[in-house]
UniProtKB/TrEMBL annotation:
Predominant cellular place of this UniProt entry's protein: membrane
Name by which UniProt lists this protein: Branched-chain amino acid transport system permease protein
Stretches that traverse the bilayer: 20-39, 45-63, 95-115, 122-143, 173-189, 224-244, 256-284, 296-320
Source organism superkingdom: Bacteria
The entry's keywords: Cell membrane, Membrane, Transmembrane, Transmembrane helix
Subcellular location(s) of the protein: Cell membrane
Topology with respect to the bilayer: Multi-pass membrane protein
Keyword Mitochondrion: no
Gene Ontology CC terms, in alphabetical order: plasma membrane
GO molecular function, one term: branched-chain amino acid transmembrane transporter activity
Species annotation: Lutimaribacter saemankumensis
Length: 360
């Protein structure tokens, strides 16, 4: 069992708790770098898909997990990021400039949308963002001269420093590009949580009245969180559209928003690791179901099987493990560290609420 002695506030916001944790993450990074030499192209494509979903999940996690604002409309920001990036590339900008600009444009639009939307709370905010996702589908069709409408658009070729990034001819380069993006987003996310703004996000999530009493500007904090969340999700949407190579209004439906929300709930709401664990589940679940149905000798596709199984998984997690996969791992790790002194009720769920929450 490792014990951390904190002698200053700086120890509480360190990037890594100790040298051992830094070593573990360095080893994981080395494994991710070596992954193209360890698996074939098919599973490398699935790993790339996991990284893309992780980027989108980190965007929603920042808003829902860190700030406590439920959103069912992040598929709209995925679409905005994708179309903004592609349109900028078609206008002549190189990918290395069009990609971040697409995320910035999406973030600014998200911040503008947040100004009226964040006057709502809870389920009302979720319904408002869901309406945004449904409206985006129609807007893509209506703006056919720019979006291609129902016919969709083909992703332009990607060149980074003269190297062509193609999913079929160069899957390794695509994987590394997605890995670099998710690493940059994760470092940004982690450092944001260590900054005063990140602590303001947590204060708003726990109690808006208490946060306001401490001098936090609630409206400004929510708007910034929504804008940053939309920008990160836009980057993930751009990667998703470019990876698919062909996309239209049906690529970014509101079902994608629901999957994204379920992903972070199953992975572990409020944890960076939860976005990655949830992405692994949502990316590999179709393959697992396909292998399972083939092993049973079934040749008939079952409509809605994937959605039904994922919904069942989410219900089970909400009932028996609300902290998700990463929360379960934390409990197992704590039990092993404290064994044989761990108590059965040490993780009992709290059923009481702050008095300030009742006044909300």
């Amino acid at each position: 069992m490792r014990i951390h002695f904190k002698t200053s506030y700086d120890h509480d916001i360190r990037l890594f708790q100790d040298g051992w944790q830094a070593f573990l993450y360095a080893a994981l990074l080395a494994l991710m770098i070596a992954l193209p030499w360890l698996i074939d192209d098919f599973f490398l494509g699935e790993a790339t898909n996991v990284l893309i979903w992780s980027t989108c999940g980190l965007g929603l996690m920042l808003l829902t997990g860190q700030t406590g604002q439920a959103s069912l409309g992040h598929s709209a920001f995925m679409a905005m990021g994708c179309y903004a990036c592609v349109l900028l590339m078609e206008a002549g900008l190189p990918f290395i400039l069009a990609f971040p600009l697409g995320g910035i444009i999406t973030g600014l639009i998200g911040a503008l949308i947040a100004i009226p939307a964040l006057k709502l709370h809870g389920v009302y905010l979720a319904i408002a963002t869901l309406a945004l996702a449904i409206l985006t589908d129609d807007l893509i069709v209506m703006l056919e001269p720019w979006t291609g409408g129902v016919a969709g658009k083909f992703a332009p070729p990607i060149y980074v420093f003269g190297i062509e990034i193609n999913r079929w001819s160069n899957p390794t380069a695509w994987y590394y590009m997605a890995l670099v993006v998710v690493l940059v987003v994760t470092l940004f996310y982690r450092n944001l949580l260590r900054a005063p703004m990140g602590r303001a996000f947590a204060a708003v999530r726990d109690s808006e009245i208490s946060a306001q009493a401490m001098g936090v500007n609630i409206a400004r904090t929510k708007t910034i969180a929504f804008g940053i969340s939309a920008g990160i999700t836009g980057l993930g949407g751009a990667l998703m559209g470019l990876f698919a190579e062909v996309f239209n209004n049906e690529t970014f439906t509101f079902i994608l928003s629901i999957q994204l929300l379920m992903m972070i709930v199953v992975g572990g709401l409020g944890f960076i690791h939860g976005a990655f664990l949830g992405a692994i589940v949502i990316a590999f679940l179709p393959q697992v179901l396909s292998i399972a149905t083939d092993s049973l000798g079934s040749t008939v596709a079952i409509p809605g099987l994937e959605t039904g199984v994922f919904g069942l998984i989410m219900i089970l997690f909400i009932l028996f493990e609300p902290m998700g996969l990463y929360g379960r791992w934390l409990k197992i790790r704590t039990f092993l560290e404290l064994f044989p002194f761990a108590r059965k009720d040490m993780f009992r769920r709290q059923k009481s609420y702050l008095k300030t929450e009742r006044l909300r």
